[in-house]
Amino acid sequence: MGLPAIFAVAVMVAIAVVASEAKTTIEPCSGSDSCPALLGYTLYADMKVSEVAALFATDPSALLAANALDFAAPGAAHRILPMGLFLRVPTRCACADGVRKSVAVRYAARPADTLATVADVVFAGLASADQIRGANGLADADADAPLDAGQRLVVPLPCVCFNSSDSNLPAVYLSYVVQVGDTVPAIAAAYETTVTDVMNVNAMGSPVAAPGDILAIPLPACASSFPKTASDHGLLVANGTYALTAGNCVQCSCGPGNLNLYCTPASLSGSCPSTQCSNSNVLLGNASTHATSAGCNVSSCTYGGFVNGTITTLLNTGLQPTCPGPHQVPLLTDPPTTVNRDYSTSLAPLSAPVPTEAGGVMAEPPPKSSEHGGSFTLPKVSPTHGPAGSVSGAPPPPMSKPRRILSGFILCLLLQHFHV
Questions:
Q1: pLDDT, average across residues 3-10
Q2: Which of 24, 27, 307, 352 is the most buried (most CB within 10 A)?
Q3: Residues annotated as region Disordered (predicted)?
């Protein structure tokens, strides 16, 4: 076993030690509505894109799009992602048993799996052994006893909706598992928000979070205004990312310069409906401009939702002071081959939005990084101030000294064992 794997084991043990005290933001709810949400997930091993997608019952292309990774590259679903990589996994946040949670994941136990390892290792602390036990009616099951190979488990995952808004602005909420070495100020800084914001969203009594706690982080988003008859009604796209819709025939992005939803043809599907605006030669996502002495006449074709198998388009015309330039979209990068294995934190570096003009002709396909592989970065989000939720339990203290000593002792044993 290599040194990175040893560190991974040590971190997973440390998380398991404090798992019984982990806190999660709880949002009461009623009804059967749901909202788009994101799960912050750190890979416990090298995994194919398709394997991660299957684990969370999502589409591989959607997983890549949510992380601004090149979802259109040939064989992208079979690319291998490195252990320790932090991903944002798209999910639907449903209302179940009176609280918000994602309940779409079904996991088939492997030999030697236990409730504890499924919770702490496979799902990286997004679920607890007690939550999995309760969701599957296993009241008497020992969390450390081996499960029957092939046994299917419902895995409830944490998420919140808060009306898909933050301070009355569109937002998608990321469920982030606090790692060993994380602090609330560091988490707030990484997502360009404030400690007060994080505390308000998670109803924290003090700016202290322990490893294993799950914080809801609001990410500014671009909101759609599709009719309720559209199958993608309520589509939200987090700033700096993409979402695929209309049977993977349309890709919608958000940012980096503004929070206006921008959709273009995706062509990931073999057969797609027409994307041309009626009574014009303008295609979805493009604009026709004509400079005049009074300004610039602009005709643009925007996406109006996927209704009864049809890509609805809307032709917008108007006079602007100047002709707009090409619309800027989030940078697409290749799936990484390496990751910074600093296990003191899993916070992904983020890059700030830049000013841009809205509208215009998309001069070329979404840009892609010239680097192949490399360390992974995620786009930044703008400062936000969120609604208050409720936390399951009092704000936890930081990891106690005995627990830190225990974690260090375990790590030393591992290092000594493998040195021998």
A1: 41
A2: 24
A3: 347-399
In a domain, 327, yes or no: no
Q: Tens digits of per-residue pLDDT, 244-258?
A: 999 999 999 999 888
Question: What is the rounded distance in angstroms from the CA atom of residue 131 to the CA atom of residue 126?
Answer: 10
> How high is the pLDDT of residue 106?
97
- Residues 6+ positions from 54 with CB-CB distance below 8 Å: none
Domain range for residue 181? 3-221+332-355+366-419
CA distances from 12 to 187, 280, 343 (A): 20, 58, 10
List, in order, residues 6 or more apart from 276 with CB less than 8 Å away.
282, 283, 284, 301, 313
Whole-angstrom distance between the N-terminal and C-terminal Cα of the chain?
A: 12
Q: What is the pLDDT confidence band of residue 123, given thresholds at 50, 70 and 90?
A: very high
Mean pLDDT of the chain, nearest integer: 81
Give the integer Cα–Cα distance in Å for 221 and 238: 4
> Does residue 252 belong to any structural domain of this protein?
yes
Q: What is the pLDDT of residue 368?
A: 53
25 beta partners = 391
- What is the rounded distance in angstroms from the CA atom of residue 392 to the CA atom of residue 370? 45
Q: How far apart are CA 381 and CA 187, in angstroms?
A: 12
- Evaluate the CA torsion angle 43, 44, 50, 55 in order and state its sign: negative
Indicate the SS3 state at residue 248.
coil
What is the spatial distance between Cα 351 and Cα 372, in angstroms, rounded to a whole number? 19
Q: Give the whole-angstrom CA distance, residue 102 versus residue 156.
A: 6
Number of domains in the chain: 2
Give mean pLDDT, residues 193-214: 91
pLDDT of residue 26: 93
Residue 17 has pLDDT above 60, yes or no: no
Q: Indicate the residue type of 274.
A: S
